[in-house]
Design brief:
alpha+beta; 4-stranded mixed β-sheet; 2 helices; 4 strands; flat
Length: 104
């Protein structure tokens, strides 16, 4: 019985690693219940569902986002100028992006 329980715990831990690889935005704090609150809650739940089911996709841009595209901290975009690709992550809540080259 102990081996089965240990196997289940190890399986859950290893299976959850993939879901934790992507960062989620911090959910908003709900202070009152109205239609706007339900809309925000639906957005958060949809984002959780997309990440847990492997449906998370990055926006593909052809213009360098650094200095020209506003974003939220932690947002990712794929910069594809044609010859090479870069994964860019927003490092502040404005237009500062940090990019890393992707190689096959």
């Amino acid at each position: 019985m102990g081996r089965v329980l240990l196997g289940m715990v190890l399986g859950l831990c290893l299976g959850s690693m993939e879901a934790m690889a992507l960062r989620l935005a911090r959910p908003p704090t709900f202070t009152e219940w109205n239609t706007n609150t339900f809309t925000q809650l639906n957005d958060v739940l949809l984002q959780l569902w997309n990440v847990s089911n492997g449906r998370y996709t990055n926006d593909v841009v052809t213009v360098d986002p650094d200095g020209s595209r506003r974003g939220t901290k932690g947002e990712q975009v794929l910069y594809d100028p044609g010859a090479s690709e870069e994964l860019c992550v927003n490092v502040d809540n404005a237009t500062d992006w940090d990019c890393a080259a992707l190689t096959p």
